[in-house]
Amino acid sequence: MLTSFLPSLNSAVQSALIGDWTPLLKAAGTSGKEWADNAPCANYNSDLFFPEVEYPWSDPEQVRRDHGSALREPLSACAACPLSVSARCLVESLRHEDRYGIRAGLLASERPALLTAWKSRIDHEAVSAVLRGVPATITRLEREEVLSLLSADRSLNLDAAARGLAISGKYLSQLLRDHQQQLWNLTDPMHASTGGAINE
Questions:
Q1: Contacts of residue 55, Cβ cutoff 8 Å, sequence gap at least 6
Q2: Contact present, 113 and 17 (Cβ < 8 Å)
Q3: Rounded to an integer, what distance in angstroms lies between the CA atom of residue 150 and that of residue 172?
Q4: Are 85 and 9 in contact (CB under 8 A)?
Q5: Any alpha helices (H) in 40-167, and if so which ranges?
Q6: Please, what sign has the CA dihedral across residues 101, 103, 105, 110?
Q7: Neighbouring-strand partners of residue 103
Q8: Which residues pair with 10 in a beta bridge?
Q9: What is the full per-residue pLDDT of the chain (200 aa) written as tens digits?
Q10: How far, rounded to the nearest angstrom, does the alpha carbon of residue 3 sit from its chain's CA centroid?
Q11: Which of 59, 140, 149, 162 is most buried, most CB within 10 Å of its CB?
């Protein structure tokens, strides 16, 4: 996927594609608050990283082959980027679902699989924080994971989880009832098709 001049980032991306986000997130987490100021591209016109010859639906191999000269300067800037900064650049592009432009040496057409994997990932640290009562920004999938864990383990503190989700305990109780009903509907299709009614 990545060119050979970014072997460390390439390895982290390959791990992410099979579900292990730890290397990429760990590298991105060391970039500091002013990470963008430490990127070589900070000294370039940003238009350079949005080539008109490349789109999310392009064939990346053909784009690199046919338009290599137009890509040389932005890709060289990416190649000179410190690993922590390029990892952060890539993670931020996934968080914001950026579909266009070159990010961390990856063309827009090289990122769809990674973006799909990102959308289906669960940040277990964020889930754990919510369960401890620490508010965290979580995705829909992560919220479902919180509800699944609360449903499966009655020893977990519902008040803490409500604080972590920034909702009331009453609303959390309703979400848990809905979650358990959905599970019941999945395991008992007849129950779901009758709307929960019992045929006498």
A1: 100, 108, 109
A2: yes
A3: 10
A4: no
A5: 60-66, 68-79, 83-95, 112-119, 124-131, 140-152, 158-165
A6: negative
A7: 106
A8: none
A9: 444 346 679 999 999 999 899 899 999 988 888 899 888 899 899 999 999 888 899 999 999 999 999 899 999 999 999 999 999 999 999 989 999 999 999 999 999 999 999 988 998 889 999 999 999 888 889 999 999 999 999 999 999 999 999 999 999 999 999 999 988 888 766 654 555 544 43
A10: 22
A11: 162
Distance of CA 53 to the CA centre of its chain: 27
Residues with Cβ < 8 Å from 200, sequence gap 6 or more?
Answer: none
Question: Which structure tokens are listed for 48?
Answer: 């350079």
Phi, psi of 195 (to 5 degrees): 70, 25
Cβ 105 vs Cβ 9: under 8 Å: yes
Amino acid at 121: R
Q: Look up tokens 């070589």; give the residue.
A: 40
The residue type at 118: W
The contacts found for 123-130 with CB under 8 angstroms, 24 or more apart, are 123/21, 129/164, 130/161, 130/164, 130/165
54 token code pair = 């490349």
